Amino acid sequence: MAETFDTSRSNCDGCSNKTPEPVCIDAQRIYDSCSDKDCLTDLRVHFTDYNQELIDNAVNVRIKDVDVITVYVDIEPVPFHRGFYSIDMTIFFNVCIDVFMTPGASAQTITGMSVYSKKAILYGSEGSVRTFSSEISCDEFDTQKPATRNVPTASVHIARPIALSAKLKHNCCVCPVPCKIPSCVCDCVGGEPTNVGTNSVFATIGLFSIVQLKRNVQILVDSYEYCIPEKSCVTSSDNPCEMFSRLDFPTNEFFPPNVCDLTGDETPVCGCTSCASIDNRD
Questions:
Q1: Interval 6-13 mean pLDDT
Q2: Quick one: which H or E segment has residue 241?
Q3: Which neighbouring-strand residues pair with 209?
Q4: Do the beta carbons of residue 117 and residue 124 sit within 8 Å?
Q5: Whole-model pTM?
Q6: CA 163 – CA 62 distance, rounded (Å)
Q7: Residue 96 in contact with residue 275, Cβ under 8 Å?
Q8: What is the pLDDT of residues 184-205, one digit of tens each?
């Protein structure tokens, strides 16, 4: 969404006295959005052959961490409801599980994968034009990009999931993976999940998400000045000791923060977070 520029925040002294000039820009306008707070219960965790052998011989499990690997999004018009679209989302989770082989023994941490699908219906307006555009390549001949469908763009924003609980159950039947697993997901969990096993792990995950429908629109905004940097780029020195002398002393590393000082921003955002990195973080 476009917003009027605040001249009080400008870093050039003469900008506040300039008369605003209306300019036309191409921007993404959000036509509709929704937020969800989902508690995903009994979400099955799928493992590779090696990790599934550990699950089959385990006496207990405990969830350690969970993160989102990727989200596949598909959008289609809703029949008989002009301007509305159905957004189908398939969310792939990277789940770290502590496995206990005997009572009282130390846990062994392994990685698995879970899948969750959800749907949202939002208003994305209408359009009857087709969009054509081109990209410039210095090494190849410029090619014309094909026309795109006149549908809005769906975006899904997901906060880091909350690992709530996990439980171990004995399989009474063969439970296949609910969909085709993308290669990027298999790479994160160490291989293709298996359908064979005597035990299964079911996780409970807390999920916060926001779904938006956006379209490219041309809007008129007030322009005050170009954003010209005023700070010079600092050239790095070849002397490592000189560079080290400019670093601040890491006081916080020697004095752990109180609970009121924690902001939650220290957690990594990569969807392929490994259990080893989680152990180092702890």
A1: 45
A2: helix 240-245
A3: 36, 158
A4: no
A5: 0.72
A6: 10
A7: yes
A8: 888 888 888 888 888 999 999 9
